[in-house]
Amino acid sequence: MGNLAICPGSFDPVTYGHLDIIQRGAKVFDHVIVAVFQNSSKSPLFSVEERVELLKETTKDIPNVSIDSCAGLLMDYARDKNAKAILRGLRAVSDFEYEMQITSMNRKLNEEIETFFIMTNNQYSFLSSSIVKEVAKYKADVSDLVPEPVSRALQQKFK
Q1: What is the pTM of this model?
Q2: Which cell locations does it reside in (predicted)?
Q3: Is the pLDDT at 60 greater than 90, yes or no?
C-alpha cells in the first residue's frame, strides 16, 4: 500500500472535525486506515460495529480511505498493517500534553512508526464527540457538527 497511515480513535460518534483530519490526511498519504478502537476509559454510545458502519458511510467518497476496528495496542495494529505513520488531530493546546504522552509511549513500543499531527480546522476546534452526544441527548440540532447519517443515528439513540 505504499505510504500507509493509521488514523486511530474511538469515533463515538464521528464528527466533522474527525472528517476534516481524515480528508486532509488522505491528501498526504497513499492510504489511510481509520481504525476504531475500544477505549476502556470511555462508555461508548455506539458499538464498535455501529461506529465502523457510520465511518464507512461518511468516508465512502474518499477512495484511499478504509475503515477497520481493533481492540489491541495501536502499535501492534500498525505493525501488522505495515503502516509507516500514525495520523492524529489536534484541536487546541490542551490536546497536546495528552497526545505527547501517547506518542512517547508509542515511540517506545515501535520507533519505526512516526506520528503526524494535523491541526483541526479552526471551525472545529471546539468540537468533540462528547459535546455532540451531550447536545444531541437534549434533542438539539447537531446537523452542522456531524454528517447526516450520524445525525440520524444520534436521533435514534436518544428517542
Answers
A1: 0.93
A2: Cytoplasm
A3: yes
Residues 6+ apart with CB under 8 A from 136: 142, 151, 154, 155, 157, 158
List the one residue out of 8, 14, 9, 7 whose CA is nearest residue 124. Answer: 14
Render pLDDT for 22-55 as a digit per residue (tens, 0 to 9). Answer: 999 999 999 999 999 987 777 899 999 999 999 9
Contact 29, 62 (CB under 8 A): no
CATH of the domain at 8: 3.40.50.620
Annotated ligand binding at 130? The verdict is: yes
If one counts the domains in the chain, the total is: 1
47 annotated ligand binder: no
Instruction: Tell whether residue 27 is among the known ligand binding residues.
Output: no
Establish whether 89 is an annotated binding residue.
yes
Cite the active site residues. Answer: 18, 42, 91, 129
Residue 137, domain extent? 4-157
Distant-in-sequence, close-in-space partners of 150: CB < 8 Å, separation ≥ 6? 13, 14, 15, 54, 58
